[in-house]
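Quick entry between incubations.
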Amino acid sequence: MFSWMNKTKEVHHECFDTVVEGLKSIYKYKMFPLEQHYLFHEFHSPPLNDADFDAKPLILLVGQYSTGKTTFIKYLLERDFPGMRIGPEPTTDRFIAVMYGEKEGVIPGNALVMDPKKQFKPLSTFGNAFLNRFQCSMVKSPVLKGISVIDTPGILAGEKQRIDRGYDFIGVLQWFAERVDRIILLFDAHKLDISDEFKRSIEALRGHDDKIKIVLNKADMINPQQLMRVYGALMWSLGKVFQTPEVVRVYIGSFWDQPLRFDSNKQLFEDETQDLFKDLQCLPRNSALRKLNDLIKRARLAKVHAYIISELKKEMPNIFGKENKKRDLIKNLPHLYRKIQQQYSVSQGDFPDVKKMQEHLSKYDFNKFHSIKPRMLEEIDSMLGSDIAQLMAMVPNEYCGDSDIDIRGGIFENVGDNLSPFGYRRGEGIMAGYGEVDWIVNKDRSSYDNIFDRLSNNNPKLSGSMAKEELLKSKLPNTVLGKIWRLADIDQDGFLDRDEFALAMYLVNVKLDGGDIPRDLPDHLVPPFKKNSSYPHD
Ligand code: MG
Ligand code: CA
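Done. Structure below.
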C-alpha cells in the first residue's frame, strides 16, 4: 500500500475549545475587573474580547509577485476561494483573510473591521485606502475549521508601487505579523530576485523569526543542479536579512497540484510538502499554548501595574502640594519600582518600561487612582497558581501525530460541490460527458484497455503495485494520484478492475488537461455497470 492510499483520521477540536473557553472566563472574571480598576487599558493594552480568544491560528503568506501565494492557499484548501486571483495577470492586489464560513462570499474591508466577531477592528486605523484593499473570503472548507490564512498583495520591484499603494503597507504587514501564528515567506526558485520592497518587508518581520518558515516554490521548474545553486543563493540572501538564517526552515518544493516539470526531485518535494503540512497541522496546539502564555504575561503586567498605581495613590497628599508631589513621584518612578520589587517580590522583568510609564502618568490625576485591593490581587494569584496550570494540562502534548486539522493538499480534498460558481476550469474538465448516454470514459477505452492488459498479466484486477508505475508516468504529485485512486476504486477493495482502471486513466487526463478533480465522483463518471449495484461510493 502507498501512503496516498491511507484513510483520513478523525478530527478533534474539543480540547482546544475547552482551553479557549477556560481562558475567556478566567479573563472575564479574574483579570478584567483588576485591569479596569487600575486603568490598565489606558496604560497598556485595550481589553480583550471574545474574538481575541476565539481567533483561529493565522497563517500569513508573504512574497513577491507570482511566487505562488494564492496558488498555495488553493493547494491547502484544495479548491478555489471567492475573490481569488491567480497571476501573473491579473494578480492579488489586496489583503485577503481566507476564513471559514457556512455561507460563502466576500466581506469588504470596511464591513470587516466593524464585525465584533472578528479580530480586525484595529486595522481601521490604516485608513480607507487600505480598507478598500482588504477583504475576507468566507469559504466552507474543512481545512479552515482549524486555521485561517491571510493572502497578501504581491510585492513588486521598484519605488513606484510603494507610493501607489496609498497606505502603509509595511505597517499593515507588521500588524499581521504580530498576531499570526505562522509566517510563510515564498520565493520563486526560477526567479530569485529580491526587490527592495520585499527586502524591507522581510526586515519588518524581524523579531518574529520563530514564526517564519520559508518556501522555495516552483523548484521543479529548474534542473537539480540549478536548484542547488538557487538554494545556496537564497541562503546567502537570507543571511543578510535574518540574524540566524540557518535556523529558519526552508521547504523546497512545488506547492500546487500540477505535474512536475523536472521530476528527479519528486521524492524530496513530497517529503518537504508533508513536513510543511505537519508543521501547519500543529498550529492549533501551538496557538492554544501561545494564548495561554500571552495571558500569563498580561496577568503579571496587570498585577505589577496595580501595585504601581496603588502605591502612587498612597503617596499622594490629601490637600496641599499635589502637583509638586506628582512631579516627584514620576521622577522617582525607578525608586518606586525597586520598592515594589522588594515588598511584593515581583521580578524585574514584569515591570513596564519606565520612560513610557512616566509619559503616561503625567497625563493623570493621581487622586483618582484607586488604592490596593488585596482580594483582586488574590484572584490573579489563584489564577496564575491553579487555573492556568489546569488549562495547560488540557493541551495535549503530542497532538501533532493525530493532526487536529486535515491539510493534505489533495489527498483528502473538500470540493463540496464541483459546480461551485467560484470554480475555474479550462474546457469542460470533469463535467465533460455530463448528460450524455454513453460513458465518456469509453471514448479512449481501447488505449486504457491495452495498458490494462499489459499490466495485468491476465489478472482480473490491478493491485496498487501493478498500477503504480503507469500512474506515476503522469508526473502528477502523489497527493493527486491518491485522490484519483480513491475515486476510481469504486468498490473500495484496494484494486482496480478494467472499468476502474479506465476511469483512473481518464481522471489523470482530465487533470493533465487542466481540469480539477472533485471530492466525489460525479454521477456521469460512475461506470454504467456499477451504477445499479450496491457499491459504496460516498
Ligand atoms: Mg496572489
Ligand atoms: Ca476496485
